[in-house]
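User: Fold this, then the next.

Assistant: Folding the first:
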Amino acid sequence: MTRAEKTATIEALKEKLSGVEYFYLADSSTLTVEQINKFRGMCFEKGVEMKVVKNTLIKKALEAASGEKNYEELHQALKGHTAILFTETANAPAKLIKEFRKDGEKPALKAAYIESDVYIGDDQLEALANLKSKEDLLAEVISLLQSPAKNVIGSLKSGGQTIAGLLKALEERAA
């Protein structure tokens, strides 16, 4: 790779890193070409962008893009072969890795950057897979907000039937 190609790769990664809130670093070192291609296909289907880049280039891009973000903690994860996974949904790559690993033990999670929080190590995979997306959280909030209104309406409807029943009983007694 020439110096110009390295500079272009670093610049492209820097732009990508400054524009995303979530990305994962994964170890794909023992995967065969067939397995890597299968994993790339799964990534494409789920809307996850996968790039395999040299660690030194990732490190330089992280340093150049850091600004307000705390990418320094990610440097310890940059050993061995690294695949970087970009996503719009925080838990998508974790779920993808879990699904793919039903057949083996790789790719292993090296680190994840989720809205300024850094998760280091493969033991964090379960926690990351269980993260709720913004859409899920909004749906929960809306259902919680609707719940009291539904209870009030239900009570009013049942109360109306009770009052109607009492009035009917009183009417029958008077007759």
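Now the next one, as you asked:
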Amino acid sequence: MAVKLEKKAPFKGDHVGSLLRPERLKQARLQHANGEITAEQLRKVEDEEIIKLVEKQKEAGLQSITDGEFRRSWWHFDFLENLVGVRGYDPGSGLSFKGIETKSYIIKVEDKVDFDERHPFLEHYKFLHEQVGENHVPKMTIPSPNMLLLRGEIDEDTYGVEDILPDLTKAYKKAIRAFYDAGCRYLQLDDTSWATFLSEKGLQSLRDKGYDPEKLQELFTRAINESLEGRPDDMLITMHICRGNYRSHYFSEGSYDAVSEIIFSKLQVDGLFLEFDDERSGGFEPLKHVNRDDLHVVLGLITTKFGELEDKEEVKQRISKAAEYLPADQLALSPQCGFASTEEGNDITEEQQWEKIRHVLDIAKDVWK
């Protein structure tokens, strides 16, 4: 019998999605970039490594199974640049994280945005679905529409910032339906846009670009909710709100207070994966703004940025603290982010990665018996 998503909630012990690329896959991607192997040869290596990864996730005890984002260079650009009207290119410099700069890449909107059935992620999902089988749930991760608004260069001759919204949300509605028709019942939107509002530095960066932060929050809220209008009732759609994750470095900091009323009471998602692995995220008080008994919050209390395991009892105590603001049956546990938001991966070994995942599942079993 197929595993069911109970009450459209994430699993009590879950994960964000991306996983460390094995060395064989990294080498194959490099060979393909250098013209030493064909796209078909690379695809064969990807297929074989994803098959292995699916089994490793099952062995670790996960119920939600991803392809580790093994076919991607970036967690967001690979999806976005394959939308109609969008292309990726090298601008000559990367994004500045705390203590490091990313490799150079960006996306640009050059024509009317749309989604069509030729998008490669549909085939990626279908392959994953075939491998997972009936006793686990295949989970697809894609960037939220806000990532095109925040990270994409938009040709002013094509769109104004607000003018793009109808086409963008229509494209996402089509994408959601296409994944559903391919069998997907668990979809996650990954989003770093909300973290920009959590600190004065982030707010100033928006003002420097000519944005009104308050109006931008309204735009981002509309982008999510309008994209989700009409989604199938039996499809779980969650959102991961990230503060940056590039080779174990972060991008932003600040508590959720600044956007808590929006993310906890206005976004029409079924669940939120939130970073709470260190003091940069603040306390659990913002959870008091949750005004729905069907919204589930997945606490990212286990970090993917280093290999040392968190103290199990301390994690349980933090879950208990969060339960003072939101009932425990609406809470779950996961790592704070993926292990490899980009193909380089975090500074952690594969063995440590699986230890972290098992740690999450062991704690979840103890807490939600």
